[in-house]
Amino acid sequence: MTISKTVYNALLNEWGPQSWWPATSSLEMMIGAILTQNTSWTQVEKATKRLKDENALNIESLASISSVKLESWIRSTGYYRQKASAIKRMCNTLIKKFNGSTKTLFSLETQELRMELLSWKGVGPETADSILLYAAHRPVFVVDSYTRRFMTRHGWSTENEPYEILAKRFTKELEAEHTVYNEYHALIVRLGKTYCRSKPQCESCPLKFLLIHPVSV
DNA sequence: CACCAGGCAAGTA
DNA sequence: TACTTGCATGGT
Description:
mainly alpha; Endonuclease III, domain 1; 2 domains; globular; single chain; DNA-binding
């Protein structure tokens, strides 16, 4: 039993499946992935609800509405000008290159799809991999700030290691099942939100019975 | 008041 | 390649 698998089992046993990604369509998931960049999820929920209330959560609407309108609807998520233009560009690309359909986009092979997503301004490694995992159901591991902090604190990585190296550390030890990567990432985020913020609460952490000693910051 | 939240791109050396 | 800076609102 590898350590990463042991941690996964412990977290899943503690909290059960997290039912990520909380979205009812691929497009909603992709929009959410952009909106949540460096922003708390409650703000994303607010913005998403607004888009639904405005009946604008579809590719055609988002591609054609005015930037000013879209910016005002997603204002609460911060960086709203950049995010609005990223969303509009994404929808225009879907129309021009992929027949206005996320299914056509997702017919690409995983590596091709990753390259395509990364070529979109406003989509970096985490956003691309989130889309690959949670919308396209590909077996990739998402490394976010919670994952980095968790790995650093427990001696699984030193600081400033490249994104792909950290992701590999998980994928090497786990079976290549997208459902496992899905749950694991969501569980790490929950762990980080609950016990592993800037002020750690190791005494009550569900991992405390494992002999994993935090190593400072 | 400071600090943080499910990052990314562009500029500089 | 490796650092630095701008983007921006809202909650604690």
